[in-house]
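Model the whole thing, not chain by chain.
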Amino acid sequence: MTAILEIRDLHVSYRSSGGGLCPALTGVSFGLMPGEIMGVLGESGSGKSTLAGSLVGLLPSNARITGGNVQFEGKDLLRAKPDELRQIRGRRISLIYQEPSLALHPTMRVGEQVRQVVAAHSSSGKSALNEQTRQVFAQVFSEEADRISRSYPHQLSGGQRQRVLIAQAIACCPSIVIADEPTASLDPTTQTEILGVFRKLREKLDLAMIFITHNPALLSGFADRVLVLYAGKVAESGPAETVLGSPGHPYTKALFHSIPTVSEKSGYRRKTKLPAILGDSAHSSSPLRGCPFEPRCTERMDICRGSEPAPVNLSASHTVSCFKYES
Amino acid sequence: MKVEATIGKNMQPLLRVENLVKRYSKRSLAGTPEEFLALDRVSFTISPGTTLAVVGESGSGKSTLAACLACLESPTGGSIWFEGREIANLEERARRQIRPQVQLIFQDPASSLNPRWSVMDVLAEPLILQRKFSGAEIDMRGASLLERVGLSPETLKRLPIELSGGQRQRLAIARALALEPKLLILDEALSALDCSIQAQIANLLMELQSSLGMTYLFITHDLAMAAHLADEIAVMDHGRIVEQGPVQKILKQPEQETTRQLLAAVPRITLSPPSLEQ
């Protein structure tokens, strides 16, 4: 099977107010298979939102793509013209953002907001458009789809609003949906519900997804593969069970350990110090040479400060960028 | 309906809430008044130096509870005793004496800090408002607060935008500690932070609790974090506390459906392959 989206050696930088370039992504490569859910895990400043924006040409004006290419349906998305991108965006690749209350027009019925997405990419007549919109709503709302489509955003709950955004994203039957922290503002019960919607749609529509989050627990039982970003670099990537079950990179390991749990593990004690990762993922103070995680790493060696680790294959599909595994 | 805390029974509770009711009225488009019961006969106690976690879905009344306890909203009914003193229906002047002792920390430190104020300005304001401290005292206290929350003295001159999310929340905690409060209300204080930073701030909160004897009301929808930090958990649903008890009991023998649902919804790292429910 060939990848539907192939990202090769992507480099993106932001121009700072002083005129210098701050690298946000340095050499990110991965392929997305049809119908696959790729979980992208990273903390703020790791470049995960920059990754989403660069794939569809929606980066802030001070961003510069300084290298690499993104192959999608025979086109390089990084070099596509604005017209070509407009054809792809929303129709072939769509985006879902974090804050559903900000992404929707406050004084327009949500049904109309989905209908406009359909209309933008279709030349069908009015009744066909309405019918198509109705079908899209029926896919994300199992009940009361009609009532909800006549509502305004403020009349809906956070979970319902997020479903409207999903409806917009799948309205034109895209092959890829990029979701940037789509459940971050929802409570856990609604979160689980929305993940269920994504899973169902993936099965039904054969959607491939890039699911961006900072919470590894969300990816468990949901993503097929996991890509861990740290300071703009891929720290680790592999099948979800492998990365979540037996992480190789010291960052991934430390991240998983820092999360409290409700399940009773032996030796787990409440109200005790959590094994936090010290420091911040500071972008400015990170070393110019060497591994970006080195200042916070508990397993660092002499070599880590001097040069950058190359990706090492632990198995056919599991890759870790760490000197621990280099021989 | 009265639920008593089981921890520190022989101590006087720092906070005792009895049958607290908060009703909001709004007018519909047709002009008919509608009433919304945000808090429905809520009762609990918190002993000094302990943590009560209030968990529940969005809209269950958690934040209204916080606002009532911090004297930002007047409850419609019921009573709140803080150190044995009824504070639910105080005059504004009397409330001002209570407020420094009950401090709030909000979810998003980026929006709870004035973007044009330096770290020092942020820390100095509560002290200036009290009119009890000289300039030199304020500087000294500012520096020691920073140290207390693990920020370096160089940050004093910085603006919030120059701080990371974790540093900003540390600053918000330092500001809340400035007036030496007895009760800290943490309203989703960790939710907006990255997982690795959540652990750092949680550690800071636990350390402050053991060194200063702080009492926390920890409002969250993250049951796992609540279970780690708290002594007791109260589960809220539609404005009511449906279940309350020690952490172990809530986790092991949840009695209410709401609690069971919340427990089931906690994301966990499990090793089962993706399962599809149709």
